[in-house]
Amino acid sequence: MDRMATRRIERTQESRRLLVAAAAELFAEKGYRQTSFIDIAERAGISRGSIPWHFGNKLGLLEAVVDDRLQAVLTGLTPPAGERPADPLDQVMDFIRLPGTRLFITLLAEAVEVDSPIREHYARLHAALRQGVRARIPAGALPQGTTPEAFTILMVGAVIGVHAQWRVAPEAVDLEAVRAALRALLPPGPGRP
Amino acid sequence: MDRMATRRIERTQESRRLLVAAAAELFAEKGYRQTSFIDIAERAGISRGSIPWHFGNKLGLLEAVVDDRLQAVLTGLTPPAGERPADPLDQVMDFIRLPGTRLFITLLAEAVEVDSPIREHYARLHAALRQGVRARIPAGALPQGTTPEAFTILMVGAVIGVHAQWRVAPEAVDLEAVRAALRALLPPGPGRP
């Protein structure tokens, strides 16, 4: 491939990346429905006409945004090769503070609607979070009557729901006290003394 | 007051009640922004012109809907006089299945937006849920390092977040197994053997 063709592809990928990043910011700030192609193009500094070229329509852009965040979450849950896995508790609590998490809460209302195109993406995200947590629960560490599946649903649920309460009333939710409470309730596991 | 005046007031209250119920259904189904006065009037079987008369504008109607559900939740958390308080665990898990809970998740995206008129209502709802749970935690029942405040944030958070996962992928969330896991993690308290 000649140098001009390579640069053209790089520019195309960069445009796509900028549009996804701008859309993610705007969806988090204003919600999916309230955000227009004009808003996104302005924020990205890229011509509005290129959005349909990259993504087809607005739903295609939404799917690209959710996929992009899903990849970021999956990457965050996978420790670098050779490194000890992080404490799952710290991972899920830190997840609350990620800027991208705001987007997930804002788009949740879209995802739970009947026939939502991103429902499937959310199901994959939740499944990935549960898998990431579950992989770190040592065998036999849970109280009797507790399945690893149910336990991970609770942990991921607590993260989603603590985040929701924190978003609505940050002054009422002491995240460090919540982390300590979670730690006290959970069985010891890898990465935890 | 004569009988005609009494009946007029009753009809007015009944209209208001029907409009709030119709709006709650439609907000849960379609979201707040997608629902029009025409939709609500049709569902309630009441003339569209009476909505501004009752609620001022659409935000007034939204506030009335959230307030109505808040009252229902508070009533649900208060046991009838003389009755033993229900197990808080069963209460929060049962809350997940209430039809009204769907509305809360759908409207959460509205509530977390900056300057949202219903943010304050959500803060009150979460505070009421936490208070209801907290009142039933016996002194000294929590593991060391756990404050009752943080514990109730976790419990209410788990309810919100388990519900979110269940809404997105009901086949992946076994609510009875989750209830058993919560029960195994929690300290014994009133109403629990």
Automatic annotation (TrEMBL), chains A, B:
<dbReference type="GO" id="GO:0000976">
    <property type="term" value="F:transcription cis-regulatory region binding"/>
</dbReference>
<protein>
    <submittedName>
        <fullName>TetR family transcriptional regulator</fullName>
    </submittedName>
</protein>
<dbReference type="Pfam" id="PF00440">
    <property type="entry name" value="TetR_N"/>
</dbReference>
<keyword id="KW-0238">DNA-binding</keyword>
<dbReference type="InterPro" id="IPR036271">
    <property type="entry name" value="Tet_transcr_reg_TetR-rel_C_sf"/>
</dbReference>
<keyword id="KW-0804">Transcription</keyword>
<dbReference type="InterPro" id="IPR009057">
    <property type="entry name" value="Homeodomain-like_sf"/>
</dbReference>
<keyword id="KW-0805">Transcription regulation</keyword>
<dbReference type="InterPro" id="IPR001647">
    <property type="entry name" value="HTH_TetR"/>
</dbReference>
<dbReference type="GO" id="GO:0003700">
    <property type="term" value="F:DNA-binding transcription factor activity"/>
</dbReference>
<feature type="DNA-binding region" description="H-T-H motif">
    <location>
        <begin position="36"/>
        <end position="55"/>
    </location>
</feature>
<feature type="domain" description="HTH tetR-type">
    <location>
        <begin position="13"/>
        <end position="73"/>
    </location>
</feature>
<dbReference type="InterPro" id="IPR050109">
    <property type="entry name" value="HTH-type_TetR-like_transc_reg"/>
</dbReference>
